[in-house]
Amino acid sequence: MPRAGLSTDRLVSAAADLADEAGFDRVTLSALARRFGVKDASLYAHVRGLDDLRTRVALLAAGELIDRIAEAVDGRTGKDALAAFACAYRAYALTHPGRYAATQIRLDPSRIAGSPAVRRTAEVTYGLLRDYGLQEPDLTDAVRLLRSAFHGFCALEATGSFAAPRDLEASWNQAIEALHITLTNWPRAS
């Protein structure tokens, strides 16, 4: 019988909070059980194990991230949409480092099939890139470029790795401008 007050949603939310506080790699069933003052075994009434819990945190975070991005890009096109997308991505990554780390793990395709967060991410991202006139296979290549650029910048910023005296916001804005120029002049696949 599930322990009173515990639910899958409460556990996943608490695990996401723990990820932001301590790091996604420190999210364990034991740490989560301690938060609720229960034994580890009590959690198995709500999640199938650590992989299940981490997958659920990843999907929660992906949903939160795309909700923020979709709100930011709503009604915008071209460079304005790209900048809004990029800035919402960056803000989430820096504000929620553990949740953001969860969005970077490889998930079992069978677990994410039909996920509203995954579907919405594709819709919003591909919509942004279709405004640049891109079609497959260029869409996939452009998604990979944007994800690499945004993730790389955020990861380096989060660890304080940008030591040059150049203003970080200026570099960020220049990166967005460079991406806009690249997308506008995309070399079409033959």
UniProtKB/TrEMBL annotation:
Record feature DNA-binding region, as residue ranges: 28-47
Protein name, entry field: TetR/AcrR family transcriptional regulator
Keyword terms, alphabetized: DNA-binding, Transcription, Transcription regulation
Domain HTH tetR-type residues, every copy: 5-65
Lineage of the organism: Bacteria, Bacillati, Actinomycetota, Actinomycetes, Kitasatosporales
Gene source species: Streptomyces composti
Pfam families named in the record: TetR_C_33, TetR_N
InterPro entries for this protein: Homeodomain-like_sf, HTH_TetR, MT1864/Rv1816-like_C, Tet_transcr_reg_TetR-rel_C_sf
